[in-house]
Design a protein that fits this description.
This protein is an all-alpha fold and 67 residues long. It has two helices and no strands. The longest helix has 23 residues. The radius of gyration is 16 Å and the shape is extended.
Amino acid sequence: MGRRQNDIKRTESLKQRLTDDARRSRDEAHLLPPGQHRERLLRRVRQDETAIEIEAWLNSPGLRAPT
C-alpha cells in the first residue's frame, strides 16, 4: 500500500510552502509567452496568495467560533 498524504512529516509551515510555490510559479510564468500555460501559473499564484490569507485569518487569535 502507498503512503497517505497525512503520513508525511512536514518540516516547513503551510505559509512557507505556499509562499515558495507562489514565488516559483510567478517566476516561471514571467518567462513564458502569453498563453494558457502562463495564465494557469498566474491563477495558481493567486490561489496560493488567497490560501495564505485564509490560513492567517483562521489562525488569528481574534477568530471566534460561530454561535
